């Protein structure tokens, strides 16, 4: 049978409380017993001091004969008083340990007994003797016995002992055990109740997490766990909620991805199949075959671009695409790409600005950066207004080179800007103007730029322009010198780009070296 964490924790806490009570009770009994014995010893020492004083006052020492005479009548009277008051036994032995006077409960007797030499030696060595026992067979039950020597004339004349039954300790301990037992039962019951409800309170969120996790495993990511604390349990609940949110977003992206891919594949394949069937069955006349074959070719190219983009994205996201970084002039890359769109640029009568800046060297993968530039320029040419402009802007900061590509036109709305880098996202306007696009271009651009350690942002003002600015690492080069500065306002021309080509003869070598050193430090940091 599976044991729940509730019973494990409850049983552990109860065992700890019970064990603590047992240990506490044992220590309490031990300390109480020692305290009682020490108190009894101090009391008996005081009584024995009185008895010793009586003995000394009842004795006379004769210097000539070197003998001690004891007034037994006065001494026995004092011993009787001490014995009656304290319910104790008081006796006196000579120097050899033989009992001379014995007073028990006020009655005088003289049992034949000799205190052992071991006890006598202990008294002589320590000055006193205390034990809880039968005094080597003198008593039939356990007694507390305290003894000390009596000196007179520089020598020991005898020893005085006082004994009391030790049953008082047993009675004392029994009463303490009763009190402690009642207190322990009350504490144990209270601890059990508190532990039970605190355990339920602690385990409840764990059970809720278990139920939610099972739902997550079944694909239901709508369940959320209530966070009622900021401890480890609360942090775990927050982590599960965040995980559910991420899984929900991933699931939505996955479904959207599958739906978009299916749609993008279905449309060109339907067109291709329809036109080819029309040619084969003669529905399309011979004179029109070339026209429709050209359409089929365009659709095939569209499918090829879709597959290529998806493969590149898959390699980037899997970490399989390795960068082959080299120093390259990104202005040349842009110019070469613009030649590809020369026909569209001429048809729209576009004005190209900002490319008269000399060399702008970056450290990047030439093929991937060409794809970034191609996709951005393709978008810019596609959505630029007739007789508008394309503006290119360059500046460096913190070891990164920033490239801006702006096109005049209608721009993007505030609702569209946050989504332009999503997979398969196409704005409403682009759906009418971009029949061949698949909505992966900008997502691929962002992935490539991120792979280079850069970033890309979009700026747009509706009715005026749209601009994409991406960054890649700057390259160390002395091929040309560029005075850099962040643009303040786009006004067109060389100065508005923030990059001014200058002659190497006009550059101070020390200043150039310092500038390159700062760029290197920025890249390394």
Description:
It is a single chain. With 525 residues, the protein is an alpha+beta fold. The protein folds into 3 domains: 5-61 and 68-171, Beta-Lactamase (2-Layer Sandwich), CATH 3.30.450.20; 232-317, Helix Hairpins (Orthogonal Bundle); 322-524, Heat Shock Protein 90 (2-Layer Sandwich), CATH 3.30.565. The chain has 13 helices and 17 strands. A 6-stranded antiparallel β-sheet has the order 5-4-3-8-7-6. It has a 5-stranded mixed β-sheet with strand order 10-12-13-15-14. Strands 1-2 form a two-stranded antiparallel ribbon. The relative contact order is 0.06.
Keyphrases for this structure?
525 residues; alpha+beta; Beta-Lactamase; Helix Hairpins; Heat Shock Protein 90; 3 domains; 6-stranded antiparallel beta sheet; 5-stranded mixed beta sheet; 13 helices; disordered C terminus
Structure in a nutshell:
With 525 residues, this protein is of the alpha+beta class.
> Beta-strand percentage?
15-25%
Rounded to the nearest angstrom, the radius of gyration is 52 Å
Overall mean pLDDT score? 78
Structural class: alpha+beta
The beta-strand count equals 17
Number of domains: 3
Q: At the third CATH level, what is the topology name of the largest domain?
A: Heat Shock Protein 90
- Please tally the helical runs, counting DSSP H or I stretches of 4 or more residues: 13
General form = rod-shaped
H/E element sequence = HEEHEEEHEEEHHHEHHEEHEEHHEEEHEH
CATH homologous superfamily assignment of the largest domain = Histidine kinase-like ATPase, C-terminal domain
What is the rounded distance between the termini? 58 Å
Largest sheet: 6 strands, antiparallel
Helix content: 40-55%
């Amino acid at each position: 049978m599976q044991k729940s964490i509730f019973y494990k924790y409850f049983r552990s806490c109860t065992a700890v409380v019970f064990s603590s009570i047992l240990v506490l009770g044992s220590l309490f009994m031990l300390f109480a017993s020692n305290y009682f014995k020490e108190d009894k010893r101090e009391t008996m020492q005081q009584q024995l001091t009185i008895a010793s004083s009586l003995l000394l006052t009842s004795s006379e020492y004769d210097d000539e004969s070197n003998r001690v005479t004891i007034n037994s009548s006065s001494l026995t009277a004092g011993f009787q008083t001490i014995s009656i008051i304290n319910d104790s036994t008081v006796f006196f032995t000579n120097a050899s340990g033989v009992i001379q006077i014995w007073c028990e409960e006020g009655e005088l007797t003289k049992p034949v007994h000799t205190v052992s030499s071991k006890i006598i030696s202990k008294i002589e060595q320590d000055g006193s003797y205390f034990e809880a026992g039968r005094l080597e067979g003198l008593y039939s039950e356990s007694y507390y016995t305290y003894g000390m020597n009596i000196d007179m004339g520089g020598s020991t004349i005898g020893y005085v002992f006082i004994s009391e039954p030790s049953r008082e300790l047993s009675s004392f301990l029994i009463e303490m055990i009763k009190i402690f037992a009642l207190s322990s039962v009350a504490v144990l019951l209270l601890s059990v109740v508190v532990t039970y409800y605190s355990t339920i309170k602690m385990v409840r969120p764990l059970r809720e997490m278990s139920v939610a996790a099972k739902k997550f495993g079944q694909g239901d990511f709508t369940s959320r766990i209530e966070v009622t604390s900021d401890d480890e349990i609360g942090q775990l609940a927050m982590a599960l909620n965040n995980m559910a949110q991420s899984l929900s977003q991933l699931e939505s992206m996955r479904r959207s991805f599958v739906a978009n891919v299916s749609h993008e594949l279905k449309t060109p394949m339907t067109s291709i199949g329809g036109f080819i069937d029309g040619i084969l069955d003669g529905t399309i006349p011979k004179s029109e075959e070339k026209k429709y074959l050209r359409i089929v070719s365009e659709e095939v190219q569209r499918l090829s671009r879709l597959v290529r983009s998806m493969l590149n994205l898959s390699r980037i996201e899997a970490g399989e695409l390795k960068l082959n970084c080299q120093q390259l002039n990104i202005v040349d890359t842009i110019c070469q790409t613009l030649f590809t769109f020369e026909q569209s640029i001429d048809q729209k009568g576009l004005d190209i600005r900002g490319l008269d800046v000399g060399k702008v060297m970056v450290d990047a993968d030439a093929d991937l950066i060409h794809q970034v530039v191609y996709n951005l320029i393709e978008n810019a040419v596609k959505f630029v207004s007739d007789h508008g402009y394309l503006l290119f802007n360059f500046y460096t900061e913190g070891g990164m080179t920033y490239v801006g590509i702006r096109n005049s036109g209608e721009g993007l709305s505030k609702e569209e800007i946050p989504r332009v880098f999503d997979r398969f996202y196409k704005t409403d306007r682009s759906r009418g103007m971009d029949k061949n696009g698949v909505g992966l271009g900008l997502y691929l651009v962002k992935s490539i730029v991120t792979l280079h350690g850069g970033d890309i942002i979009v700026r747009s003002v509706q009715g005026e322009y749209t601009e994409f600015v991406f960054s890649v690492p700057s390259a160390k080069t002395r091929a040309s010198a560029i005075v850099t500065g962040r643009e303040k306002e786009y006004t067109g021309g060389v100065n508005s780009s923030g990059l001014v080509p200058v002659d190497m003869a006009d550059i101070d070598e020390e200043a150039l070296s310092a500038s390159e050193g700062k760029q290197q430090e920025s890249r390394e940091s």
